Amino acid sequence: MRSGYRKTLALALASLTLVAAPQTAVANAAAENLAKIEARNMGKIDAARLNKLVISASPQAAGDVVFSRDWLASQPKPSGNSEFKCLAEALYFEARGETVKGQFAVAEVISNRVKSARFPDSYCGVINQGTGRKYQCQFTYTCDGHAEVIAEPRAYAQVSKVARAALDGRAPEITDGATFYHTTAVRPSWARKFTRTARYGVHLFYRRGVQTASN
């Protein structure tokens, strides 16, 4: 950014010089010299640093993650322990049809629960909380009475990469501390008691706290 400032300053000085003095050979030479100096300075900017600045300015990018299917496709096949498998499975059944950003948001809710004293302290624990009591669990797919069959391998491969990035801490925070979510297809009563923090695709995200008119 300092180079940009120098460039702006150089152009301003050159403009002032040309306005305040007649168009002489000396003035023209001074302006040309300033332009050459700036050109050399711009060439010294590190390409990696410049690329990082451009990426960070994008609303669809943060940290190591870019919220796109192309980015996910470029990532290596992920692997991991039971925590990884639990999160990948949850994303498959809860958000495989969601946007990439929406999938990361669902992963973040689960991660926020793991960090909260109100919920179990592991991904598998959070995801399977209440499992065994039909429709009394936290994640419906674990207690709806249907077999958990992964019938779309391509969708599972994608959410697995989301799960790996989330577990590795590579994903930015995008839900403002949400620990709850639901789809736009339902209107649970608890949603009126909490503060909505975000919406991605067909998912609405909430954190504990009273909903206000400004939210």
TrEMBL record:
The record's keywords, sorted A to Z, are: Hydrolase, Signal
Domain of life, per UniProt, equals Bacteria
GO molecular function terms listed in the Swiss-Prot or TrEMBL record = hydrolase activity
Give start-end of the signal peptide: 1-20
Report the InterPro entries cross-referenced here: Cell_wall_hydrolase_SleB (IPR011105), SleB_dom1 (IPR042047)
Gene3D superfamilies for the chain: Cell wall hydrolase SleB, domain 1
Domain Cell wall hydrolase SleB spans what residues? 97-206
Q: Which Pfam families match?
A: Hydrolase_2
- Name of this protein: Cell wall hydrolase
